[in-house]
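Lab manual, section 2.4: Encoding a predicted structure.

Procedure: take the sequence of the chain (239 residues), apply the prediction step described in section 2.3, and record the output as structure tokens. A sample record is shown.
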Amino acid sequence: VIDADALCYLQRNSGFVDAEHQRLLALREEFLARCRQWRVPYLLLSDGRVFGAVAEGGAELCESDMANASCVAGAQFAAVEQALLADVTQQGLVLRTGPLIAAQGGNFLGDCLATMRGDAALCLNDSRVVYPTPVADLARVVSGLVDQISCGAPTRGIYHYNSSGAATAYEFAEVVCAFASQFVVPMASLEVGEDGESWVPEVPALSCDLILQNFGIKRLPWRAYLPRMIKAVCEETSK
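Recorded output:
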């Protein structure tokens, strides 16, 4: 079972109200019990907000570091992870990732492109560092994990994956602007501001050494995915 429900929702939304969170957590625990009964491996997609806010300088956090969520979304991820890993008999694996970008749906890439079409200057934060992760790259990693799990690889524990290449909101927007200028005219100007727009969501940088050691999965740069995504967004918008 690949459980991406919480990740899909919480990458764009701050979280559920507590009553709804408790209801959904109870449903997931019931489903986990059925998976345990039938010995079905369970892969949960989570993200680094279980550790709290993004640190200045972008220090990378390891799987063994203590979770200390400071937002509703992070607390919800932590609760789901705990429910999965609480029973040592459960074949459960957690994959935490970074802030996702994609050609479809609401995400920081789409927000940047939408704002760049205006005439006003776009003010962005240039201090808080994250590792943006294309959805296509995350799908590659999940596929690699599933292939190895189906061949008997261990299905217990926590792993991290975010694409390579640290970027502040301003640095990312600069790259987006360079590619998008081929399709969008005029482009808004970019400015640096301490209180400017930052990543949504802001996910701490994750150390990805363990997934390389145990599964041989290497990090790929998010920049390699960007031209195709930007072209897809611009072509869809122009229809």
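Check your result against the sample. Residues 18-37 form the longest helix (20 residues).
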